[in-house]
């Protein structure tokens, strides 16, 4: 692309902004993972969208927050040993997670308004971007809806609501990657043949399902048990997968079944990506947009290794957070592959 063409690319600042927002969502995901793994998510028992930006500033404020935390089951059942100093640690992670979520909204709406004033955004792009802003706001609501599930009866948040919260974050991240790539000027090399889109879209769906399955693993602390691989509870197919009635509950509430399914989906993704590589190599090679498949395959194998290490080491925080973040990067790379195929000659 020539210097003149770059200068005439009025959407370049928009693309940089959207990629920056995607990176910020990834940062929020990392902090959210730490918040979850340190059991910090229930430390703030109220939702104050504006005043909650300011943390407790006096000893009296801290005591008030601590007393509110003492009223929920997580404290009385699991954390009655905590001192105020201990509480401040878990409070920090939840406060930081919420602060970053608020900041994401600010980082979205202010540049969005500036770009509108500059008439840099065509209507066909402005409305979808505003939809992403609404999705981000809905994500904040889902976060509080998730937290509220653990304030009265449970000692942690509902795994169903955790999956909804993480799933919405994944959709937002995918959109923030797809839109700027799709509006990048120029064509991409290679040839897209019949079925290539379908293969990539199915992969993106499989990865999204795996992210949701990982949320159920996290929500049930299913990774804290059955810490062997490749056997699980001494067998390739352990007993007790259908112990709950009705049967569908096992998919979402039986820690054994939830972890087993997470493993199975990982195996399916590895096989599917391997087949996609073989298919493309036979159909014309991995040139142009299809070069993404090489990177996708590499990250899939790395992700499997991380998942196994996280499991057998009983979920150390640094590995678990890296595993979760890499899942988002993997689905993001798949979205880039899809977007680049749409910028390639089709036959």
Automatic annotation (TrEMBL):
Name the top EC class.
oxidoreductase
* Residues spanning the signal sequence: none
Co-factor requirement: heme b
Does the keyword section mention Membrane? yes
Catalysed reaction(s) here are:
Fe(II)-heme o + 2 A + H2O = Fe(II)-heme a + 2 AH2
Q: Which residues cross the membrane?
A: 16-38, 99-117, 129-147, 159-179, 199-220, 260-278, 290-315, 321-339
In which residues is heme bound?
262, 323
Keywords associated with the record: Cell membrane, Heme biosynthesis, Iron, Membrane, Metal-binding, Oxidoreductase, Transmembrane, Transmembrane helix
Q: How does it sit in the membrane?
A: Multi-pass membrane protein
Q: Which PANTHER family has this protein been placed in?
A: CYTOCHROME C OXIDASE ASSEMBLY PROTEIN COX15, CYTOCHROME C OXIDASE ASSEMBLY PROTEIN COX15 HOMOLOG
Briefly, what is this protein's role? Answer: Catalyzes the conversion of heme O to heme A by two successive hydroxylations of the methyl group at C8. The first hydroxylation forms heme I, the second hydroxylation results in an unstable dihydroxymethyl group, which spontaneously dehydrates, resulting in the formyl group of heme A.
Q: What is the official name of this protein in its record? A: Heme A synthase
Q: Which organism is it from?
A: Devosia nitrariae
Q: What is the lineage of its organism?
A: Bacteria, Pseudomonadati, Pseudomonadota, Alphaproteobacteria, Hyphomicrobiales
Q: Which gene encodes it?
A: ctaA
């Amino acid at each position: 692309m020539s210097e003149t063409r770059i200068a005439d690319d009025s959407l370049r600042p928009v693309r940089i902004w959207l990629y920056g927002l995607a990176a910020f969502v990834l940062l929020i995901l990392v902090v959210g993972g730490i918040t979850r793994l340190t059991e910090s998510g229930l430390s703030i028992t109220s939702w104050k969208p504006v005043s909650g930006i300011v943390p407790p500033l006096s000893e009296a404020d801290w005591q008030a927050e601590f007393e509110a935390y003492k009223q929920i089951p997580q404290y009385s059942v699991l954390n009655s040993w905590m001192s105020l100093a201990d509480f401040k640690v878990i409070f920090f992670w939840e406060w930081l997670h919420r602060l970053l979520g608020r900041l994401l909204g600010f980082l979205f709406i202010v540049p969005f308004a500036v770009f509108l004033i500059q008439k840099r955004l065509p209507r066909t792009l402005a409305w979808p971007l505003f939809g992403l802003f609404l999705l981000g706001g809905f994500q904040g609501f889902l976060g509080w809806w998730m937290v509220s599930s653990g304030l009265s009866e449970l000692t942690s948040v509902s795994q169903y609501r955790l999956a909804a919260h993480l799933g919405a974050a994944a959709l937002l991240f995918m959109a923030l990657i797809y839109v700027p790539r799709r509006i990048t000027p120029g064509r991409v090399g290679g040839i897209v043949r019949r079925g290539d889109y379908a293969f990539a879209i199915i992969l993106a769906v499989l990865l999204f399902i795996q992210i949701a399955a990982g949320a159920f693993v996290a929500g049930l602390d299913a990774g804290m048990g059955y810490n062997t691989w490749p056997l699980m509870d001494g067998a390739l197919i352990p007993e007790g997968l259908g112990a709950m009635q009705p049967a569908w509950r096992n998919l979402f509430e039986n820690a054994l079944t939830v972890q087993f399914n997470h493993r199975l989906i990982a195996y399916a993704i590895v096989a599917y990506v391997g087949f996609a590589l073989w298919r493309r190599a036979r159909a014309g090679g991995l040139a142009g947009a299809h070069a993404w498949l090489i990177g996708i395959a590499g990250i899939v194998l790395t992700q499997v290794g991380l998942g196994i290490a996280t499991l057998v080491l009983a979920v150390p925080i640094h590995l678990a957070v890296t595993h979760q973040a890499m899942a988002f990067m993997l689905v993001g790379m798949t979205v880039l592959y899809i977007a680049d195929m749409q910028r390639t000659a089709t036959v």
